[in-house]
Amino acid sequence: MKKLVFFLFLLSITTIAISKEYQSPKNFIQKALQTQSAERHVYWLDDEAKSVIESILGHKFNKLRLRYWQKNNETVWILNEIGKEAPITVGIHVKDNQIVRTKVLVYRESRGDEVRHNFFTKQFIDAKLTDDNKLDRHIDGITGATLSVRALTKLSRIALWLHKKVT
Fold first, then answer.
1. SS3 state of residue 125
2. What number of H helices and E strands is found in the chain?
3. pLDDT at residue 14, rounded to an integer
4. Helices 47-57 and 146-166, axial angle in degrees (round to 10)
5. How far apart are CA 22 and CA 90, in angstroms?
6. pLDDT tens per residue across span 2-29
7. What's the pTM value of the predicted model, to 2 decimals?
8. Residue 28: CB partners within 8 Å, gap ≥ 6?
């Protein structure tokens, strides 16, 4: 029993050590919308929204609502998706139905954190959603970070779809 408790303790320390916050969600929202007090909203997921999100993710989505921040025709979404084993927290700023900025806020995986760099995330700038809920451009992958690349691409698609629904 003591060995199991010790093992779980070591596992939790390892997980904490891997988690890296690159920017706080609050700071991302403030910079994106250029205000200290962005208006926070809640989008309640209906059957259509859940269906679209689940089709993009390729798995069940067990949330009832999503929070977002809005200023005029701009929205900011803070979303999470599993990379390989742990959630990646991403901030996505959308204006006029296209992405202004995508930023990895918290990365919890042991590999693949190259997706946080500007050389990768700048590919999403000005990306739009096609009629079949795909991005209007190809996103180049990163060797060794395939699942993280997919996670950011999926979250970008979801943020664009949600933006259309709330503006």
1. coil
2. 5, 6
3. 47
4. 160
5. 10
6. 655 555 554 554 444 478 999 999 999 9
7. 0.88
8. 76, 78, 91, 93, 103, 105
d(CA 149, CA 37): 31
The predicted-structure confidence for 70-106, as pLDDT tens digits, reads as follows 999 999 999 999 999 999 999 999 999 999 999 999 9
pLDDT of residue 15: 46
Rounded Cα–Cα distance for residues 73 and 69 (Å): 11
What is residue 36's predicted lDDT score, i.e. its pLDDT?
83
Task: Tell me, rounded to whole angstroms, the distance of Cα 50 from its chain centroid.
Answer: 16
- Residue position matching structure tokens 């979801």: 158
- From the list 107, 102, 64, the residue with the least C-alpha distance to 89 is 107
**Tokens 């303790």 sit on residue:** 9
Question: Could you tell me the two tokens for 30?
Answer: 């403030």
Separation of alpha carbons 14 and 29, rounded Å: 29
| Cα separation, 87 vs 135, whole angstroms | 22
Question: Where do the domains of the chain lie?
Answer: 21-166
Q: Are 87 and 81 in contact (CB under 8 A)?
A: yes
CA distances from 22 to 11, 91, 156 (A): 22, 11, 18
Q: What is the DSSP-derived secondary structure letter of residue 105? A: E
